[in-house]
Each structure stands twice: as structure tokens, then as C-alpha cells.
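Hey, quick one: can you model this chain's 3D structure?
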Amino acid sequence: MTGNFYNALYLIVGASFVVKMVMFVLLAFSVTSWAIIVIKYIYIRKAYNQSLYFLDFFWSSKTLSGAFSKAQGTFSSPVSRIFMISYQELIKWERRSSKSQTNINSSLNNIKRTLRRSINIEITRLNQLISFLATAGNSSPFIGLFGTVWGIMESFHGIGESGSSSLAVVAPGISEALIATAMGLFVAIPAVIAYNYFVQKIKVIDAEMQGFAADFLNIIEADIFKSKD
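Sure thing. Here's the predicted structure for all 229 residues.
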């Protein structure tokens, strides 16, 4: 195993300038991808867990003000953030002296717009950096393939100059070239897996926010009409 590692390292060091540049680009892609994977995994996992925790407390809470206090302690939750913003909009309406039907409809529309805008902001925040994983997953195999093709071209050029087609002449260049393909796959596979995982998690959080927004509006409308009776 150790011998294979040193052989691969020797081939990388002895590769041509173009193949080395390809490997350097793939290495940069790999480091960046893994950094994004770790950062987003921690962020999305925390957002998901705190959202579930906040929703449990919200539905067991007797007052919106109590839920607001709890939301301030779960600020990593996208659901709690959209609730806080919408609740503050509700408080503004309740402090107004005029509570005519026109004012009520206007305030409800404002809260609806606030919820939609907040959800869009949260989805954008959750999706930050994720697109790089898709880019790395799609482009890395082709970048590695470019390095492979270039290395094989140089191997055939070396055959032409030496006039020998023995395996000893061809093998080193082809081995260097194939390492580029292997590196491309090494970058692409975890990037694609992580991208699909994050997209599914974000869809779940989005569904939680959409469902909470609809339920929150129903609660507000029920309280308003109840207070009017």
C-alpha cells in the first residue's frame, strides 16, 4: 500500500507541466469541496435540528409572545427566524389604533409578504456555496480527462521521438495521465453525493417553513376574527 502511494507520488512529481496544473486545479477543487461539505453539514444539521425543536415548543406554547422568547434562543433555525420577523410585523399592526377591516386586510397582506420574503431569504442562505459542489462534481471528471488525454498525447510523442513502442517507454506517461482521471473522480464523487444530500435536506427545511407559514397565518386570522366577534 505504501509502495503504491510512493509510486503515485513519484509519477505526479515527474508529470509534465500541463498535467501538474490539472492536478493542482483538482486538488484545489477537492480542498474547497471538503471545506464546503463540512461547513454546510454543520450549518444545515443545526438548522434542521433547531427547527424541529422550535416547532415542538411553538405548538406546545400557549402564547405567541412565549414562542417569540424561545425563538430568540434558536436563532440558527430558519423557521424561528421567519416567525420572529412575522411576529414583529404582527406586533406593529396590534399597536395601531385603527383596526378597521381595510387595515386588517392590509396587515394580513403585509405579514404574507413578510413570510414569503423571509422564506426566500432563508432558502438563499441555505443554498449558499452548494452550487460549487455541483460545479465540482460535473467538471472535475472532464478536467481529469483533459489531463489524461494530454498525458497520452505526450506518451505517443515520446514514442515517435524514441522510435520505440515498448511498454517501458509508454507506461510512465500513461500512468501519469491516468492519475489525473483518478483525481477527477476522487473530487467528483464526494461532491455529487454531498450536493444531493444537502439538496434533499434543504427541501425538507423548505417544506417545514412553508407549512409553518400557512399554519401561522391561519392562527393569526382565527385570532383576528375571534377578537372581532
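One thing worth noting: Residues 1-7 have pLDDT under 50 and may be disordered.
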